[in-house]
Backbone:
């Protein structure tokens, strides 16, 4: 398997090839061996050479990019050359493109017609997000897929059609070992600290033959992921191995694990709020709305999220949240913001966050300093419901690394993690 | 020129190939044409094939990674196979590695001795940060460089030795050019509509010899980028060509261009607010804080951004923003939100946004429906200052494509774009 990414912008380093990394992860999770990646610019002859090279050394090739409507989008033409066939305009595809423009009440520019050109002998992967369809091109006993380079379109099309087609081809060749992966998502420990905690388990697995395997993925600001991958004769058998391993790891790691696979920190917190019948309001300064915007990405957030106040100007903190005039990057300010927004928006729980994103310090505090206030978690012995909520609060102070944007993102996740841990404590009957 | 990155972790997507992007930028800045990139795992035969393929289609190849001390670091061996020579342990290199360990008061593990192995006929790029030296390997009239995959070591070695060697080779062949790129960022037109607008210019440039070149990059939700790239005998000459072309394109595209290179939509709007001495407050429903969190990413945002209210619960819209009880996904609700938050946070301008992110419809409106309200832009003939602001407002209604997250992101940028266009209109003296 080889991934061929098309685009001069990739060669010039103006765009980082994250598509290839995403495809590598997906293919590995689906049990496909990816042996090569390559990148070539928007040049017909070099594209043809790159595709031919990829086909010579692999059974399957995924080409990404160059399917747009403009003149430099020539992946369709290059594939036709590689297949040694002509391009034919597909009426059905053309109609779908026309409909997309129609439903947006816009006229379709002539140049978009080219997106309906299909090499003879290729079949079409219908477009659902953008205007470019994908292609499945059989070449001898090998296959070449073409998908758009826009990440959202690529991901949707690969997940829906390409992986399934690859699996069907593998099954028809009698290669049917199933590979199942699950990712445990963690927050609060460094990669080396996590590594030490699970070192014994990794060693045991190695000695037992390496099934399942455990790998660490540092995914920047979203915490560290631990991926468990198992092989088995069937999907069910491989899943059972993964699930047993998840249980082992959770027993070692405890509440450091906040979710699996695509579950985010806010999914975890939202679920706990719902279970406890509690509502939330958020006052943000340093994070500027980032926490709220993450919370509303949880489906059904309206059942527990009342809203938020972005109090960027100090004046807004004083007048709407009732802070005493004076310094605003303090523990007491974070607590007052939490209490203020809880009153303002009539929620059970209030969260407040203030800090210094940098690059300069503020009020004598270093960049990366963040105070998080939490008010309204039910006290010990009064779990659940909104009755018996005590107006006690707590403050967490952090010193976060990185630039302005990274400090903000780490601060936002840390805030939701604090809430999650306190809600877990209620559930365990030792809240407060 | 081809960059060959070595490492199974790149194929599996556990590490994103940022080295290739960095090298692409550096090579372009130095006037070198980078035609291909490739990635191959830690496998001797496949590495040899990847290097031979790269040498067949390029005059120069940079191999990154696989120079470490562990067993899976076999780039040295693969290069020796490609060159058809033996490896020889270099005493001087070995001594430098020993000294590194000595100066850190550590004993050198035996495995590090391998890092002193040099293919016969290759010369060494001395290591200054890590323990791995780089290699310059002449192969016929072509050349292959090997540098470590650790980004800091790679950057130091490429900047110090590889680029200089490439330039010396180019100079000896009488080739000396600089390449300069600039990206114009646009919003509001589809890729094909943009393509049609500049088709004449692209055609003209092609006929005139293709310098500068124009390319389109669809960067998902952040609008479409138009990249202008020019070659010249010097950096200054190439920059002048790019700047002249930027002027040509801006004349055709007008206010569709909101910035260049790294400038975001909110940078453009923030700059105009500052120039006009106006402050802003934002009330968000469907975008849930996304607009605010983008605005605060602009350095100095505190000079014009008062804050925002995330009114996710309808109750919050009624009680704090003064909306009439009833439907909240309407044009009048968007306008009332804009006026309400302007009053609440005492800003000059108020923006309000309400809509349906999906996947379900709401209040009988389809997913993707978004209403944006704007209140407080100075009327015609009263440019600048906060005096004479009229309380008139306007509403923009959009039907946005995509899933929940994409609708939110497109809505957020559309809102800031509306503000930007109205502020441009004040500057042009026909505001309102």
Residues:
């Amino acid at each position: 398997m080889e991934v061929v990414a098309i685009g001069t912008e990739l060669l010039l380093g103006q765009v980082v090839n994250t598509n290839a990394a995403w495809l590598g992860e997906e293919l590995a999770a689906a049990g496909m061996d990816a042996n090569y990646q390559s990148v070539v610019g928007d040049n017909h002859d070099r594209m043809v050479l790159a595709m031919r090279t990829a086909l010579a050394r692999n059974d399957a090739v995924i080409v990404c990019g160059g399917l747009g409507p403009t003149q430099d989008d020539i992946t369709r033409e290059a594939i036709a050359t590689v297949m040694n066939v002509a391009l034919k305009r597909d009426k059905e595809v053309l109609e779908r493109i026309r409909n997309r423009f129609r439903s947006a009440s816009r006229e379709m520019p002539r140049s978009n017609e080219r997106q309906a050109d299909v090499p003879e002998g290729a079949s079409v992967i219908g477009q659902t997000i953008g205007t470019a369809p994908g292609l499945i091109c059989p070449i001898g006993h090998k296959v070449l897929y073409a998908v758009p380079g826009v990440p959202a379109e690529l991901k949707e099309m690969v997940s829906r059609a390409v992986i399934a087609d690859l699996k069907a081809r593998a099954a028809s060749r009698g290669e049917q070992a199933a590979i199942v992966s699950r990712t445990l998502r963690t927050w609060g420990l460094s990669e080396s600290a996590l590594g030490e905690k699970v070192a014994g388990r990794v060693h045991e697995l190695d000695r037992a033959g390496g099934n399942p395997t455990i790998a660490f993925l540092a995914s920047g600001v979203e915490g560290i992921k631990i991926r468990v991958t198992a092989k088995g004769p069937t999907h069910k058998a491989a899943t059972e191995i993964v699930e047993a391993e998840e249980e082992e790891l959770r027993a070692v790691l405890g509440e450091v694990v906040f979710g699996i696979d695509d579950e985010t920190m806010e999914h975890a917190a939202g679920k706990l709020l719902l279970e406890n019948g509690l509502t939330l309001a958020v006052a943000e300064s340093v994070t500027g709305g980032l926490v709220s915007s993450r919370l509303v990405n949880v489906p059904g957030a309206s059942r527990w999220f009342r809203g938020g106040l972005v109090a960027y100007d100090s004046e807004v903190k004083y007048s709407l949240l009732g802070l005493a005039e004076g310094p605003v990057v303090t523990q007491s300010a974070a607590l007052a913001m939490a209490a203020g927004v809880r009153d303002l928006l009539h929620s059970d729980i209030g969260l407040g966050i203030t800090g210094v994103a940098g690059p300069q310090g503020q009020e004598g505090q270093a960049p990366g300093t963040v105070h998080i206030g939490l008010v309204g978690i039910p006290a010990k012995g009064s779990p659940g419901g909104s009755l018996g909520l005590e107006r006690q609060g707590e403050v967490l102070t952090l010193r976060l690394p990185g630039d302005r944007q990274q400090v903000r993102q780490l601060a936002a996740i840390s805030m939701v993690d604090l809430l999650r841990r306190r809600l877990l404590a209620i559930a365990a009957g030792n809240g407060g």
In short: Chain B touches chain A through 88 residues (CB under 8 Å). The CA atoms of residues 245 and 251 of chain B lie 10 Å apart.
